[in-house]
Amino acid sequence: RNMAKVVEMWTSAANQGNMHAQYQLGYTYLLGRGVAQDSEKGLQWIRRAADEGFPEAQAALLRRDYSETAQRCRKVAEQGDSKAQFAFGKMYYTGRGVAQDDDEAVRWLRKASDQGNADALYHLGVMHFTGKGVAQDMKKAHPFLTASEARGSEQAHRLLKKLDDPRLLTSNDCSDLNQEIKLLLNSCLDAPPPVNVRAVVFLLRTA
């Protein structure tokens, strides 16, 4: 009875444009609490809240979109499509649409890279370069990056060109160059990698 009363109050408020009530009412219908379960009606209320700018509703729809995308992406990836394998690996790496899992990310990225996918090769190179998601390994990073560049990756080309800049090891003031390199790494990983660029480049060249 109490839940039915709450649903009645939320419905009244939602119809008057209250975003929080719209969001709560949406989940009430999705879960079937105090009302007959109705996914379509639940999503309609959540979308109304999202359209009004309610952050929690917008985030909920984004999570749902990623989840549905991940399901479709897996089907295509399992059929051997390298672009889908790369995308699915990125989903595992970032935890979008699936639970974050570095091992699964690497597994799918390797499937794509084995087929010569330039984006997967670049991502694996950056992961080994920074030690994010895998153990840092200069001997593995460089071949991935050069293979990606050979297959037309502009990002790999720019990164390798900057890594070959002699200022990294000879100049005391290369902060701008360091920042440019980190921006390239960040754009790939979607998170700032805690990497000392000069130290890593030294290891890369002596590996």
Labels describing this entry:
207 residues, mainly alpha, 75% helix, 0% strand
Summarize the structure.
The chain is mostly helical and 207 residues long. It has helices spanning 2-15, 19-31, 39-51, 55-78, 82-94, 102-114, 118-130, 138-150, 154-163, 167-170, 175-189, 197-206.
Protein model, in words:
The chain is mostly helical. The protein has twelve helices and no strands. It has helices at about 1-15, 20-30, 40-50, 55-80, 80-95, 100-115, 120-130, 140-150, 155-165, 165-170, 175-190, 195-205. The longest helix is centred in the first third of the chain and has 24 residues, at about 55-80. The termini are far apart.
How are the SSEs ordered, and which strands pair?
Blueprint: H1 2-15, H2 19-31, H3 39-51, H4 55-78, H5 82-94, H6 102-114, H7 118-130, H8 138-150, H9 154-163, H10 167-170, H11 175-189, H12 197-206
Helix pairs in contact: 1-2, 2-3, 3-4, 4-5, 5-6, 6-7, 7-8, 8-9, 8-12, 9-11
